[in-house]
Amino acid sequence: MPAFRATAPGKIILFGEHAVVYGQPALAVPVPAVQAQAIAQAALGLSAGEILLDAPAVGLKSALWRSLPPEDPLARAVALTLEALHAPQPPAVRLKITSTIPVAAGLGSGAAVTVALVRALSGFLGAPLPDAAVNAIAYEVEKIHHGTPSGIDNTVVTYARPVYFVRGRPLQPFRVGAPLTFVIADSGIPAPTAQAVADVRRAAEADPEGYAALFATVGEIANHARDALARGDARRVGTLMSENHALLQKMEVSCRTLDTLVQAAHEAGAWGAKLSGGGRGGNMLALAANAEAAEAIAVALQRAGAVRTIITTLQPSP
Ligand code: PMV
Hints:
By secondary structure, the protein is an alpha+beta fold. It is built from nine helices and eleven strands.
């Protein structure tokens, strides 16, 4: 059996994080500059049903999947794939997982690793799973990472296209009317999304009316942003990003480092900036007027303490 390789991109949330958990719309896009990759190939000398996992980034070297705890994300992804394929005893497989997506930074690394793994394994076994099945498995595995995920990460990563996402509803792509260049900057602070989501839940329970209003306003911003993106009105998109950041500050998911980076992006001429993802660390996002401006913003962000910057251009819809 020939080896089978699959990749999946990173992702970044443009608008609506946290509020999306409470049913508001959010917008997210793939980040193809960073990728997870899985290669499945025959594992010689092993019995049927055995799957060896090599994932150097998480310290796995030739680990037999059944020897891993069931809540290990890679083991869970393998188990769910074999279940979906009705293949409890497949030919022995070696799975090698690599990724250039920073971990715990809000770039969807967990979802991308799962999607690449599921596609490589099912493809190698001759029965590539359709996107809907891949997405459903990635959502289940996201629960291990995030507790109560909205499903936005796995959806964007699986379909690798801009997504207007409302929890529990089918995928809706959104239109992009003009190219938009973003700078993504990593604060260097690991950001456990589950913790931020749990803290927002506690705060929302303590102040239901206040938080319902915050979430609803974020939802309105996401809807305005969808219209502005479709028109290619980058300045308006930028303004809405900054408004969204102010609301995330009110939800107490920003932090001094992220606020410093947002400020630095504004000072360097960004049209808008906000934290992206769970917050408390991880990444922020700035919108640049063009590629040259993006370079200048990236330099300013590095000077302000960003440990890594990625420039990514969202291409107009065909
Ligand atoms: O930290 P990230 O990029 O994986 O995103 C989390 C987004 C939240 O809205 C905070 C949680 C969720 O499940 O949607």
